[in-house]
Amino acid sequence: MLSVTGIVLLGVSGANSPLGLWHYKIGIITTVISVGHIIKRLPALRKSLNTKKQ
Predict the structure, then answer these.
(1) What is the pLDDT of residues 2-45, one digit of tens each?
(2) Distance of alpha carbon 4 from alpha carbon 12, whole angstroms
(3) In whole angstroms, how far apart are CA 46 and each of 33, 42, 51?
(4) 53 found inside a domain
(5) How buried is 4 (Cβ within 10 angstroms: 0-12 exposed, 13-18 middle, 19+ buried)?
(6) Whole-angstrom Cα distance, residue 22 to residue 6?
(7) CB atoms < 10 A from the CB of 23, how many?
(8) In a domain, 50, yes or no
(9) Which of 18, 19, 17 has its CA nearest to residue 8?
(10) What is the pTM of this model?
(11) Who has the most CB within 10 Å: 8, 11, 18, 47?
(12) Residue at 6 is within a domain
């Protein structure tokens, strides 16, 4: 959704439009979810890195 709104914004009058606000909100939500996902997966990442060294 973030990419689609970004592409559509190329043809719209910019960030002050309602679509620009949606793009901003979706971006914030995506960032929060991505950071949460990375934090959740850190133990598995560390474990996989430790097993490769041995």
Answers:
(1) 888 888 888 777 667 888 888 888 999 999 999 999 999 999 88
(2) 13
(3) 20, 6, 9
(4) no
(5) exposed
(6) 10
(7) 21
(8) no
(9) 19
(10) 0.68
(11) 8
(12) no
